[in-house]
Design a protein that fits this description.
Blueprint (H helix, E strand, L loop, with lengths): L1 H23 L1 H5 L9 H20 L1 H27 L9 H22 L2
Helix pairs in contact: 1-3, 3-4, 4-5
């Protein structure tokens, strides 16, 4: 279970730092908001807040299961932004198409890790 403990702390740090970035670099996330969604800035802030909260909850065993399921829901909720980035072939963030499309399968990996962490 040593590997699981390490991934818990790494993923927690990943989500907390990513969540903070939602507040310190809003424009970066605004670029991949699909045009059909309203309230772009509000959704960027909301998803950032959830990343910080759920990433913090992941560290504590008594809240880890809730955090894992919450992260699964969050990853599903933000998937349209990743799809939009891929649909623009990376132009939305000025990245190569291979990276824009390559991000999509990683969402499944992150969901699987969150599910693994939900099992206390």
């Amino acid at each position: 279970m040593f590997i699981k403990q390490i991934t818990i702390y790494l993923m927690s740090l990943f989500y907390i730092l990513g969540g903070i970035k939602h507040f310190t670099n809003v424009g970066w996330y605004m670029k991949i908001m699909p045009p059909y969604l309203p309230y772009h800035k509000e959704f960027v802030y909301l998803s950032g807040a959830f990343e910080i909260i759920l990433g913090t909850m992941l560290v504590f065993e008594h809240t880890r299961s809730i955090a894992g399921w919450g992260l699964i829901l969050l990853l599903i909720a933000v998937f349209p932004a990743n799809i939009y980035l891929a649909q623009t072939n990376g132009a939305a963030m000025n990245i190569e198409p291979v990276f824009a499309w390559g991000r999509l399968p990683f969402q499944a990996v992150f969901i699987a890790i969150a599910y693994w962490h939900s099992k206390v």
